[in-house]
Amino acid sequence: MIQVTVDKYKGYKVEGHALYAEPGKDIVCASVSALSQSVLLQLHSMADIDYRYTDGLLVVRVVGTGRPKEVQALLDLLITGVSEIEKQYPDHVRLNFKEE
User: Fold this and answer.
1) What is the average per-residue pLDDT within 64-79?
2) How far apart are CA 83 and CA 63, in angstroms?
3) First and final CA of the chain: distance in angstroms?
4) Rounded distance, CA 85 to CA 46, Å?
């Protein structure tokens, strides 16, 4: 299962594997990957971030917000997208929020 954990204003973590289909044909994995990597690329253009990527793990931390409203809008976009994927594939994706 893919676990996506969002820490409001601070970043997100995507970990695990969907195991919906074999590697290379897993549409759930591809959907979450495309969404989380697109948000990462756009965040990188507007804020100072640290990130780490390995097989089955993406951790993104916002360390400086030059444009906090835009950063939050991107994190909201990630939440909306992952939430919709979770609704369609609840056995393969889980959206979590880090407690303050």
Assistant:
1) 89
2) 25
3) 24
4) 26
Tokens of 10: 């601070």
How many degrees, rounded to 5, is the angle at CA 64 between CA 97 and CA 71? 55
Give whole-number Cα distances, 31 to 10, 69, 85, in Å.
22, 25, 8
Alpha-carbon torsion, ordered 27, 96, 7, 11, to 10 deg: -10
- For all residues of the chain together, what is the average pLDDT? 94
Rg over CA atoms, the chain? 13
Check residue 8 and give its pLDDT: 83
pTM: 0.93
Asked if residue 94 lies in contact with residue 1, where contact means CB atoms within 8 angstroms, the answer is yes
Cα–Cα distances in angstroms (integers) from residue 75 to residues 4, 23, 24, 26, 43, in the given order: 12, 27, 27, 24, 9
The answer to whether 7 and 95 have CB atoms below 8 angstroms apart is no
Going by CATH, does the domain composed of 2-97 fall within 3.30.70.1490? yes
